Amino acid sequence: MDSINWRDITDGLTAFLRGNIISLAGLLLLIILLERIATLLADRYVKSDERQHALKKWVRYFALFFGFLCVLFIYGTYAHKDIFFLVGLFLAGVAISLRDVFSNFIGWLIINSPKGFSQGDRITVGQLVTGDVIDIGVLRTTLAEIGVWVNADQSTGRLVTIPNSFILTNTIHNYTVGNDLIWNELPVTVTFESDWEKAERLMLAVAEKDFEEKKESMLEQIRKARKRYLVRYNFITPKVYVTIAASGVLLTLRYMVSARRRRTMDDEFSREILLQFGGESAIDLAYPTTRIYRKDGPAASL
Asked: What residue numbers bound the domain in which 190 lies?
């Protein structure tokens, strides 16, 4: 087997660059021009921001790949015997020294598969971060973070960038795949002396009023989800569960809500329930109390 003459290879590359500098510069300008035209067309004819952003990214990837192939073709016509060796050497170097980059690229392929997620989805990555996906790059994914010090599913204002290889080693919880409906619960505790059955009816009425307004939209989302997943619901109507708690009767309102409106609905339902309970003398909200019983007198509450 002939030994590798590195000097000949480097001299060949230098001569190639000197002899084809004008062709390579023209090719670069042509690719930049075509990418710019495609970007302008996307801005003009694609109305959806999400699709527009995704299309621009794919145009950029295609431009880079097309440019690489063109350079490879030009060099292949110049140096037939060296091209295969250089390509093989390049791929071996990528596999060894850019292992993390390769893992991120594999993660990107999985993310863009039917089993992955898309821009706009709300996801939780293991125990790392929860947020809305705003960008999916070849190597990294960017999330608009929610939660953390904000005591709700609302934005913190921070952007979190994580490598795509996270999908290979972490569990992904997707709030919005198939549909964006999730179950939420609102606990309310009334005193033992209260008419808890009436409180239950009032809470249920508040949730059912909202449910009737959104029923058709919810059912449509569930029908679409069932075409893709084996999703089963015993019921989707609001329900109140009753539990005996330490300080009173715990009434837990369970209802279906859009993932991005969980805090908003908590606020609306809480306000309406407080208004309803405020007009009822037989219903009192409970709070932690201590009762002391004395043999020589009536009981006292603290």
From this structure: 181-278
Q: How many domains does the chain have?
A: 3
For 156, phi then psi, to 5°, come to: -90, -15
pLDDT, tens digit (0-9, with 9 covering 90-100), for 3-16: 555 565 566 556 65
Identity of the residue numbered 217: S
Statement: the pTM of the whole predicted model exceeds 0.85? no
* DSSP secondary structure of 75-114: HHHH-HHHHHHHHHHHHHHHHHHTHHHHHHHHHHHHHTST
d(CA 180, CA 263): 14
**Beta bridge mates, 144:** 132, 159
How many CA within 13 A on the CB side of residue 287?
3
pLDDT at 132 over 80: yes
In a domain, 294, yes or no: no
Residue 299 lies inside a defined structural domain of this protein: no
φ, ψ at 124 (rounded to 5°): -120, 130
Predicted pLDDT at 167: 87
Residue linked to tokens 């307004």: 213
pLDDT exceeds 90 at position 291: no
Is residue 104 assigned to a domain? Answer: no
Predicted confidence at residue 1, as pLDDT, reads: 44
208, 253 contact by CB (below 8 A):
no
Tokens 């990837």 found at: 61
